[in-house]
Amino acid sequence: MSTFSRRQILIFFAGSAGAAVLGDTILDGISNVAGANNTPLSFTPVRLPHTLPVYQQQKSFLPTGIGQGQVINTSANAKLNSYNVLDDVVVPPEYERYVIVSWGDRVFPNSDDYFGYNCDYTGFIPLGRTNDIGYLWVNHEYVSFPFSDLVPEAPADVKGLPTTFESVIGWALPTTRGLEFDGEALYNLGGSIVRISSRNSNNRYSVVKGDPRNRRLHGLSGLGINSQRTDEYKNVTSWGSRSYQKGDQNYLIGTGPAATQVFNLSSDGLGNKIIGTAYNCSGGTTPWGTILSGEENFQGSTAFFVGVTESVNPNGTQTGYTDGTTGKTFGLVGEKYGWIVEIDPVNPNFRPRKHTWLGRFRHENVAIRAEAKKPLIAYMGDDRRGGHTWKFVSAGTISSPTSKANSSLWESGTLYVARYNPNGTGQWIPLNLNTPTNPIPPSVISSVEFAALGSAQRNGLLPLPKRNGVAGQTTDGGSLPVDRTNEATILPAYQGKKLSDFYTSQGAILVDAFLAANLAGGTPTARPEDIEVHPTTKEVFIAYTDGAPGGDGYPDSRIFQVAKLSTDPNATQQSGGLYKIIEDSADGTGLTFKWQRFAQGGEAGSISGAGFANVDNLVFDNKANIWGVTDMSTDTHNGFGLGVAATPTTINHAVSGNVSSFTGVFGNNWLFYIPTTGSHAGEVIPFAHGPVRCEMTGPTFVGDTLIISVQHPGENCPINDGTILSREIELLDLNGVTFNQARTVPRGSSWPSNISSNDGGKAQPKGLPKPSVIGIKRKNPTGSFT
């Protein structure tokens, strides 16, 4: 069980220097720990299926029905022998939750347009000095069943079952893939901009329908420019007959080296014009009122077909269209996707742009440090197994953090990748043509697992760029898998050179940033999802969501927990953790840093386990408390597989190795709170539990309201027809001893159709699930959220 001393909490949340100087003060002018030790929580924590220390200390709210529950007393063992999982956003009894906008809502000037699928990051830009009215940006990441049974990764046994598209949108998708289906899939990605207002009798945010600045930016925005091409795609300028399906001129542009050194070589012949943005996961909101949206899982394949080609040649252009992908359907060249995109919700005349100095990889989010007379800094994560942690530093400096002119600072600077040392120090390695090549050997990054278990998953895989004539290769482009079995023969050909020996331009390096970073010696990490800069200390908080290796690489086992390394039932689990970077330079522009791990993912009864798994998006509230959501894989929720069969997964605490199935003990994905002051400082406090098979994403505080997306309720399962799944599931109590819990859960979801009409639903227990954006606020407002 993970416990933290007051000193540990101070050092982690206020910084070692701040703790030494300020003593018990966490944040100057905000709170004092010594005077707040007995401060109770301002809400009743939600009771989740698994054990947490707070349940020994505080009463908790146990959900018993949609919008219903009971307060239960503290318990010394904090375990529940039975638990009924609900299909709802369960919040403390002091709060209410309501729907702001859902997939399919017709809220745009063109009544054919509709709000996109699988909502993710949210960013709010106020109009004026108050937060009661403004523009909301919402990312749309991907499409999944029950949108259609043709979507990627739909389980085989859901084919032919009811889907949601026709009932929600009003017309039927084609029954086979083709131009219209692929186009509609891409239209549902990207983002939506909607004006919202809380100027009403209940002070709840709602969309101002038909506002002239409400608009979509999607995967095929600007498709009309295909008419300028000279290849076979010159006539692919629409994907259907409806008004929004007839390609427009709302294309995007690029900035930085790739825009001038790579896009001019692209086979589409469109130069620095880009069709659409898609695969949009998390992002950031700038102090000057623009949105940065991260293009994440853009990599297409025959099975995962909604995507483009990821692999590129030494000059940065794609190796070719990938058969069966939407990239090949519409002629979308891969080098133009996988970037950070800047949008101005308030100004429709600002042409969205992809900033190539921020690198091309599977972007989760971007955290900004913007201070007057200093360079502009951005921290980013590459959300893949073995992905990297990044920093961009602008060449120019900021005059005023709120000036719109700051957007130009993204156009010139340096991109760095982090190298973590096991002793708690680290370096920022610049990715430029003169950077020496020094990849970390697979035998080194996998050394901890290999020493414990006698083997390493994927043999410590470290992909490097494939080059003709290097290490016996006869072709250029894409990646070459290097691992413990072949590193002795392959690595020497990649060592002691420069990136210029592998790439023809700075732009090409940025296009292939993931492989270039491996080559330069960046540390492969445990899927960095959200990154946030502390509002006062400027330390960089990082949510590493999953330490398990995979087909893209192997996280450095000296830094991250990559597996359960013992058969002891309470041995440390691998499910990510909360880390931070402390820059050695005061302004964050230096090349060295220190790093710390505060919370290791895993059950609270496991060694070092913080009581959560797969932490994802983070956000600080106005008191610098940290809030986080979990991103447990849909196919592990509650210990049941996907589809009609919903086969129970094996959860056996007496095994070692990759124990990803252990996340089934935690139930649905949820939202937690870590206070930085008071008697619960440093503890994980559960605040909300999401609907069945969903992910809660993109939390944003707007005044006294938390705006958050509820993504993919009921994903890859039949629409809720009343079928209830039940099983015995093995968990750890707080003493690290296993016990069995009787768990029941609906097989599929009907959220938010199943909630009351007053809260934005339809009171239909077997209604349709829809990705949505919701607001959460106190029933009796106090002026702040907590």
Automatic annotation (TrEMBL):
Pfam families: PhoX. Residues 750-759 have a biased composition (Polar residues). InterPro entries: PhoX, TAT_signal. PROSITE patterns: TAT. Residues 464-484, 743-786 are annotated as: Disordered. It comes from Nostoc paludosum FACHB-159. This is PhoX family phosphatase.
